[in-house]
Amino acid sequence: MPNPYQPIKTSLQDVIAETGNIKSFVLAPDEPLAFEAGQFVELTVPGLGEAPFTPSSSPAEAERLTVTVMRAGRVTTALHGLEPGAVLGLRGPYGNTYPLERFAGRDVLILGGGVGLAPLRSLLLALLLRRGDFGRIILCYGARTPTDLVYRGQLTEWASMEGLELHLTVDKSEDGWAGKVGVVTETLDDVELDPAGAVSVVCGPPIMMKFGVAALLKVGFGSEAVYLSMERNMSCGFGKCGHCRVGPYYVCRDGPVFTFEQLRGISGIW
Ligand SMILES: Cc1cc2nc3c(=O)[nH]c(=O)nc-3n(C[C@H](O)[C@H](O)[C@H](O)COP(=O)(O)OP(=O)(O)OC[C@H]3O[C@@H](n4cnc5c(N)ncnc54)[C@H](O)[C@@H]3O)c2cc1C
Ligand code: FES
After folding, report:
1. Percent helix / strand / coil, the chain, rounded to 5
2. Quick one: which atom of ligand 2 is closest to the CA of 234?
C-alpha cells in the first residue's frame, strides 16, 4: 500500500517577494498535482519538516502551483531562505473545496485580510474561469499598510478588470497611497448588494475573521451564506491524528472551508 505521508518531489521554480514577511513560491511538482480552490497541501522542507498551505494559484494549473507564505516559525523561515532550484516535497491536496455549485447564480463577496488573500486568490481565479456562472464578484481586501498588500501587480490589473469590483483599504497610510484608510470591514460600507442573493467568503488573521463575520451578519448575510477558511495546527492532514480538531470537526478533513453556521457556538474558533 502506498505511504500516504510520502511527498512528491517538487522543484522551486521561482520566489516572489510580496511584502517584508510574505513570499510566493512557484513549485513544479514531478507529477501534476490537481487541486480545487479551498484545498491545501503539505509542503516539506527536507530535513526540517512540513507545513500546510493553501495554493494561491489557479486550480487550472496542476503542473505549476504557487503557495504564498508568511514567515511565522521554523518551516516558513527556512522556506523564505530558499532560492529557485531548491528541491522540496509536496503531498495532498487535502480537505474540502469552496462549493462553487452553491455559489452559482449568486453574487460573491470576498473579504480578505493580509496573507489571507492567498486562498482567496485561488478562489477568485476559479470564479473568473467560469465568470458567466456567477453574479457580481466583489473583492474587499485590506492590509496593515500599502507595502503589506500582497499581489500588488495583480491588484492593479484587477482594479480595471471588467466583471470584478475591487475595494482596497489599509489600516495605516504611507506616502503615495491615495486609496481608502480603515479596517477591511469598513469597505462593506462602499458595497451595495442584496445579501439574499449573495454568498460571502472570509479569510485572514483570526481577529479579522471574527470582525469580518460579525460585519457580514450585520449587513444581512445568513450564517449559512458566510464561508470561512479555517487554520489549525496540523500533522497528518487527512483525518488520522486529531491535531486539528475544532468542536466535532477535523479541520483537515471536514474543512478547511466551513460555513459560519457550522462553527457558531463552538468555543475558541478564533
Ligand atoms: C489549511 C491551512 C492552510 C494554510 N495556508 C497558509 C497559506 O496559504 N499561507 C500562509 O502563510 N500560512 C498558511 N497556513 C499557516 C501555516 O501553515 C503556518 O504558518 C505554518 O504551519 C507555520 O509553520 P512554522 O514551522 O513556520 O511555524 P512554527 O514554528 O510551527 O510556529 C510559529 C508560530 O506560528 C503558530 N502556528 C503554527 N501553525 C499555525 C497554524 N496552522 N495556524 C496558526 N498559527 C500557527 C505557532 O503556534 C507559533 O506561534 C495555513 C494553515 C492551514 C492549517
Ligand atoms: S491534521 Fe491530523 S486529523 Fe487533521
Report:
1. 30, 30, 40
2. 1
| pLDDT < 50 positions in the chain | none
Q: What is the pLDDT of residue 27?
A: 98
- Smallest CA separation from ligand 1 atom 48, residue: 73
Dihedral angle sign, alpha carbons of residues 206, 170, 117, 236:
negative
User: What residue type is 216 in one-letter code?
Assistant: L
Backbone φ, ψ for residue 100 (5° rounding): -60, -30
> Which residues' Cβ are closer than 6 Å to ligand 2?
234-237, 239-244, 250, 252
Ligand at shortest distance from the CA of 253: 2
pTM of the model: 0.95
> Which atom of ligand 2 lies closest to the CA of 252?
4
Instruction: Give the tens place of pLDDT for each residue, 178-203.
Output: 999 999 999 999 999 999 999 999 99
pLDDT tens string 155-181: 999 999 999 999 999 999 999 999 999
Which are the contacts of 127, defined by CB distance < 8 A and separation ≥ 6?
100, 103, 108, 134, 137
Which residue's alpha carbon is nearest to atom 4 within ligand 1?
53
